[in-house]
């Protein structure tokens, strides 16, 4: 399952990221925020306009906004 399909509040681990689907600068930003393979993550909120973009995801003690296209590039497994 990809992160954009993870149910709200479900804890998951990122098992793979298709970095080729992201612009290099965007990938670097996500890595700097700790969003990378092995990280525990959960979707806290989905946007209400324009296809539910962005997603608010919880990584550690941070809540970060990511675009749906970024979340679709991340394979996760529920914990």
Describe this structure in words.
The chain has a single domain, classed as Roll (SH3 type barrels), CATH 2.30.30. Helices cover 16% and strands 35% of the residues. The chain is built from 2 helices and 5 strands. It has helices spanning 24-32, 68-71, and strands at 12-17, 40-46, 55-59, 62-66, 74-78. A 5-stranded antiparallel β-sheet has the order 4-3-2-1-5. The longest helix has 9 residues, at 24-32. It starts with 11 loop residues before the first strand and ends with a strand. The mean pLDDT is 93.
Give a short overview:
With 79 residues, the protein is α+β, with helices and mostly antiparallel strands. The protein is 16% helix and 35% strand.
Can you tell me the CATH topology? SH3 type barrels
Class from helix and strand fractions: alpha+beta
Q: How much helicity do the residues have?
A: 10-25%
Give the topology string: H per helix, E per strand. Answer: EHEEEHE
**Unreliable segments of 5+ consecutive residues:** none
Name the shape in a single word: globular
The DSSP helix count reads 2
Distance between the termini: 12 Å
CATH architecture: Roll
Main sheet summary: 5 strands, antiparallel
How many beta-strand elements?
5
């Amino acid at each position: 399952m990809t992160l954009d399909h993870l149910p709200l509040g479900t804890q998951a681990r990122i098992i793979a990221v298709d970095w080729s689907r992201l612009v290099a600068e965007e990938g670097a930003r996500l890595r700097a925020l700790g969003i990378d393979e092995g990280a525990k993550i959960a979707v806290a909120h989905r946007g209400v306009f324009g296809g539910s973009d962005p997603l608010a995801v919880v990584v550690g003690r941070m809540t970060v906004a990511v675009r749906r296209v970024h979340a679709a590039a991340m394979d996760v497994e529920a914990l």
